[in-house]
Each structure stands twice: as structure tokens, then as C-alpha cells.
Specification:
205 residues; mainly alpha; Arc Repressor Mutant, subunit A; Tetracycline Repressor, domain 2; 9 helices
Length: 205
């Protein structure tokens, strides 16, 4: 039984459902998720989740938003302890890869719930998002915004900052995805930080 089920109290149902979904994803994969199985995990009636989510899609969006917030919060903790922007960016990448590779099913769900477009740069979507979509949109921006702000510490050209941030994000996402799929194996004697540092050496001027 998940921690959310053991610690569930009246009034915290939405949080408990999201935590139970994250637990089930980790233990059984995305395919195991349904509102009924999540309700059973928390120990409430199969109709109880519908007081917070009208369907599984809304639940998935909430779980994805929770994942992005957790990733963003982990990156923010690094920001509090570092003044060197280049070291900060490197450790942002390390945390991104660590999070994704440690939570592969959740990471896949997070990406599956975001949609291509210009949301990262603040442009409004063509269709106004509902509450769950808006929460996901805000949460999914956080890791990128932190990365972009890191580059802005030593680069004044906003266009270059944007490209650098997107390029760095693409790189860590690519590495994380290849690690998850088993195409890349990071030697147990090499830390993710050392791996990423070596991988980016040839990109520095």
C-alpha cells in the first residue's frame, strides 16, 4: 500500500489520489492506471475520484504537473546553494537526468501530457486551457525557466539565451531518454555530473 493510502485524511483526497497514481506508475506502469485502481489504492469508493477529476485525462494532467513541480523544486534547491552560473547549469542538467532516469514511467507520462507549441516563451495557446491544463502548463515551464535564467546570468542576448536554454534542455532530455531506453549506459564508476561534463566539453568555445 502506498504512503498516500496510509496517510490519507479527509480533505486531502486530491493529493492522496495523485500520490497513489505516482506510486502505481512506479510499481506497475502507466497502463495500470485507472480511476478505479487509484481509488482502491487510497481506500475510497470508486466514485470518489470523480469529485476532483472528471476523467482519467484530467488525472494524468495533474500527475504530470506534480512531476514537473517536483523536478523544478529539486532544481531550485540547487539554485539556492550556487553562485557560479556555469556550475549551476551543469547541476541542473544532472538533476534533470537523475529525475528522469529514476522515474522513467512518470517522466514518460509527463512528456505525453505536454503539447508542442510556443508555451515555453509565454505565448498563449490557441485554445484557452481549463484548470487542469493551466496547472500543467505552469508547472511544465518551471524547469525550462530555471535553465533559461541560468544562461541569462552570463549572456545578455535574449535570443542566444533562448537557444542555449533550448539546446541544453534538448541535450539532457536526449541523454535521459537514451538512458531510460537502454541505449546509453553510464558506467557505475562515472557520476552523472562527470558524464555530462565530459559530454559538453567539445561544445565549449
Amino acid at each position: 500500500m502506498s504512503t498516500s493510502a496510509n496517510n490519507y485524511h479527509h480533505g486531502d483526497l486530491k493529493v492522496a489520489l495523485i500520490e497513489a497514481a505516482e506510486f502505481l506508475i512506479k510499481e506497475k506502469g502507466i497502463e495500470a492506471l485507472s480511476l478505479r485502481t487509484i481509488a482502491a489504492e487510497v481506500g475510497v469508493s470508486h466514485m470518489a475520484p470523480y469529485s476532483h477529476f472528471k476523467n482519467k485525462s484530467e488525472l494524468f494532467q495533474a500527475v504530470a504537473a506534480s512531476g514537473f513541480l517536483e523536478l523544478g523544486n529539486r532544481m531550485e534547491l540547487i539554485k539556492q546553494d550556487l553562485a557560479d552560473p556555469k556550475e549551476l547549469i551543469l547541476l541542473y542538467g544532472v538533476e534533470y537526468i537523475k529525475f528522469a532516469s529514476s522515474n522513467p514511467q512518470l517522466y514518460k507520462l509527463m512528456l505525453s501530457q505536454t503539447h508542442p507549441g510556443k508555451w515555453l516563451e509565454g505565448d498563449a495557446p490557441t485554445v484557452a486551457p481549463d484548470e487542469s491544463q493551466a496547472a500543467l502548463l505552469k508547472a511544465s515551464k518551471k524547469p525550462y525557466v530555471l535553465l533559461r535564467d541560468g544562461f541569462a546570468r552570463f549572456q545578455q542576448d535574449e535570443y542566444k539565451v533562448k537557444i542555449q536554454a533550448q539546446g541544453a534542455w534538448a541535450m539532457v532530455h536526449g541523454i535521459a531518454s537514451l538512458v531510460i531506453e537502454g541505449h546509453i549506459t553510464i558506467d557505475e564508476n562515472t557520476s552523472i555530473k562527470d558524464f555530462l561534463h565530459i559530454a559538453t566539453l567539445g561544445m565549449k568555445s
